[in-house]
Amino acid sequence: MTTYVEISSKTIENHLHDYTDGSMPISMNKATESVSVTQENLLDRPRSLLWRLFHGINYFIASLCFVGASTMFLDRLRQAGPSTAAAAGWLYTIGSFLFLLSDLVDWWYSRLGCFCYKKYEEVYEKENADLFRYEQGTILGQITRAEIGFNFFLSACGSVLYLAGSILFIPCFENYVVIGLCLVISASSVVVAAQSWKVYRAGCTSLTDRLDHRFHFVNLFNDISCLLMDIFSGLGGAFFIVGTNFFLPQYYTNSPFGNNRPAGLCLCGSVFFTLSGVVVNYRHYYLVKPRDQDSHTVQHNYYQCNFRSY
């Protein structure tokens, strides 16, 4: 999953001091003294080199595991024996687990307004007072504040479903393979929904008027790499929906075409996931500003794209 975080950094730097040498804690004034980020907590260090390595490597290796697993289902390899099916099941399982790790750190980075953000709450509310149309204690107010966190949580749910389905592809669970296929189809549908939501929210984010929440097609091009990440990941999920359906008993035929059609579609989906991973790492190491590389401040710029379209 990847998208815009509704907290501006325009004045947050007046409250927080960057430490490019990796040191903490963050110096705060009285209004924001509840914010404290410790060096020992990996997930509280967004955009540090360690965070980017953990997120980017896991995501990219996961996508390569999906490529390898999908290849195992091609007819020529499938006919080689049960060992290829076992390899595919394990590769999908490992890949899904790594995707889940990436999604969890991505969600934790984007959780403001959604979950466990008490130490950032005062700054978050102050910096976005003009954006929140409903009181904090109301249901609509909570939904508005938690929208971004929910979006990324949805991506993590997709990875959980992928992991559950992939485990059932391992030969020792062969009696449950149909359930596994249904879980993978559900996971892919969740991924497509999450990525579509991210693209829509990007279209509703204006660089010139932060109060304009209407969808404008031109807004999608404010951050091309973010758009590519979400589109590639969404296409990956879409190909897996179609490809996995052809593995279901009512559509599957044990023939060269019957094996290659679903395997080829899943392979295309895996390639799109890999392309998304390439863009993710491109952002991590090429587009990141030098001053942000090891800064441990609350870097949730309203106009700044998050990671993983994931």
UniProtKB/TrEMBL annotation:
| YrhK domain residues | 51-101
The keyword Phosphoprotein belongs to this UniProt entry's keyword annotation:
no
Which UniProt keywords are listed? Answer: Membrane, Transmembrane, Transmembrane helix
One Pfam family assigned to this protein is YrhK
Q: Where do the TM regions start and end? A: 49-69, 89-109, 148-170, 176-200, 220-242, 262-282
InterPro entries attached here? YrhK_domain
Q: What is this protein called?
A: YrhK domain-containing protein
What is the originating organism of this protein? Rotaria socialis
- Upper lineage: Eukaryota, Metazoa, Spiralia, Gnathifera, Rotifera
